[in-house]
Specification:
alpha/beta; Nucleotidyltransferase, domain 5; 2 domains; 6-stranded mixed sheet; 17 helices; 20 strands
């Protein structure tokens, strides 16, 4: 481990499903400051494949933006010492002799639908849950790999790298798999945290596809000379494995000062859960579709996926495509002013997963289920936020019940923490205080694990969270008495 000077700076590359950013972090025993040096869009790119429109990530453009952001970071902080990369989970690139075979598919692509049955014919869902502890999601990596095998692509590959590990490879030339993100593939043993070779064999995958596993905080390697030249860095810069699943990094930065908390990492997705020391593998847990994902320092992120603000952003995209000019702040104010009851729908319904006419799908759901469809944009937004708050509240309550963990407060971190109406509605439905912020929780967690690995700070996750709580004071939402559930 390199001992850095107190004024050393690290860079967090934080890639989300709709945007990416490069953040500079200054960290010390009593200091935690971040500033953004680059932001860029991200999203699915439709491609025609033999008459079928498939969705891919424009990973090369994403990497170009990362390099440009890192160049800006170095220009502002020539002493930059470390870089950490996090992203969404499950998606990957297949490589042969270090070369990418195809542009990574987007998890919202529907190619995995037939692969689900093929996987379950070899390993039934109950048996899979006992081994990997993951909730069923049709885009989990093992289903995507089965689809690639059916297409013949998998036979050409000699390595699979998840998105943050792929960027780490391009930066350093070193191939690894960081455990928090690897845990979402469905191919890790939930008890040991290692690749489950018997499951890999049963599903017909080649063991050699999967690179060595490393823990968050591991030094991966130094920047390749060509990369250092590209970002105009004249010094040795390390790439550090952090909690490369963006939710794992976000949970590191939950500003909790006690143990009895739940979290909602709210952005495109809403990840609702609690932090545990070990997995919950009961039949009830599987039936409720709760997942046991790897956390930093061997913790377990016991959580449930909710569609999240994707419902709102995709609705706005539909309205803008129809020619409407949308100002989000105005729309939220109008939604807050709605006093009549609105439909509360199941935010987890699979019809809402793919891009498309989200308002039309919501109206169709309401009509099919005997609910009054929203009539205006304001009512639609209010319906979406009420439905998300309901899903968040159910998720917290189920996580507590299934795990046996007491929850006395709920932390909402990420972009959703800025949505005041959503935070208040969640507090109202839970009957518990909701603490909102920080917005950039993922980047903060990324920076903190780098800083700890570099000797800038020390201590447990609890001590790191105490530093977050001092540096980014959350906004508190108290539940309305009339809505507290008994």
């Amino acid at each position: 481990m390199t001992k850095l000077t107190p004024d050393a700076v690290v860079a967090a590359v934080d890639l989300g499903a709709t945007s990416g950013r490069v953040m500079l972090g200054h960290v010390g025993r009593n200091e935690l400051r971040l500033r953004s040096v680059a932001r860029f869009p991200n999203g699915p790119t439709p491609v025609n494949e033999n008459g079928r429109v498939s969705l891919h990530w424009n990973i090369v453009e994403l990497y170009r933006n990362v390099l440009a952001g890192l160049a800006t970071a170095v220009a502002e902080e020539p002493g930059l010492a470390s870089i950490g990369v996090d992203s969404w989970a499950v998606d990957y690139a297949l490589l042969r002799q270090g070369r990418m075979l195809q542009v990574p598919y987007h998890y919202r692509d529907d190619r995995t639908v037939p692969a689900v049955d093929a996987v379950h014919a070899l390993a039934d869902p109950a048996g899979l849950y006992e081994v990997n502890g993951l909730q069923f999601l049709p885009f989990n990596s093992l289903y995507q790999l089965a689809a690639d095998r059916e297409a013949g692509t998998l036979d050409l590959a000699d390595q699979m790298l998840l998105v943050p590990d792929l960027l780490g490879y391009w930066l350093t030339g070193v191939s690894v798999a960081e455990r928090t993100n690897a845990s979402t593939t469905g191919l890790l043993d939930v008890r040991t945290g290692d690749w489950n070779e018997s499951l890999i064999d049963r599903l017909g995958f080649n063991r050699s596809l999967f690179p060595p596993l490393v823990n968050a905080g591991t030094r991966v390697g130094s920047l390749l000379p060509s990369v250092a030249a590209e970002i105009r860095s004249s010094r040795r810069v390390e790439v550090t494995a952090i909690g490369s699943h963006d939710t794992a990094s976000a949970v590191v930065a939950v500003p909790a000062t006690g143990e009895d908390f739940a979290y909602i990492s709210c952005g495109t997705w809403g990840l609702v859960g609690v932090e545990l020391d070990g997995p919950v593998l009961t039949a009830q847990s599987r039936e409720q579709n709760f997942t046991n994902e790897g956390g930093v320092d061997g913790r377990v992120r016991y959580l449930h996926n909710v569609m999240g603000l994707w419902l709102l952003s995709e609705s706005i995209r539909s309205w803008e495509n129809e020619g409407h000019s949308i100002v989000l702040a105005d729309l939220l104010r109008e939604a807050a002013a709605v006093t009549a009851p609105v439909a509360v729908f199941d935010a987890d319904d699979q019809r809402f997963l793919a891009p498309g006419d989200m308002p039309g799908r919501i109206r169709a759901y309401c009509e099919e289920n005997g609910l009054e469809p929203p009539r205006s944009m304001a009512e639609m937004v209010r319906s979406i936020l009420e439905s998300l708050a309901d899903a968040f509240a159910r998720g917290v309550q189920q996580a507590s019940l299934l795990s046996g963990k007491t929850v006395r407060e709920v932390h909402i971190v990420g972009g959703g923490s800025q949505n005041r109406l959503l935070c208040q509605l969640t507090a109202d439905r839970l009957g518990l205080p909701v603490l909102a912020g920080p917005v950039e929780a993922t980047a903060i967690g990324n920076v903190l694990i780098q800083a700890r690995a570099q000797g800038l700070v020390a201590g447990s996750l609890e001590e790191l969270r105490a530093l977050v709580a001092r540096s980014f004071v959350p906004e508190a939402y108290t539940p309305a008495r009339s809505l507290v559930r008994q």
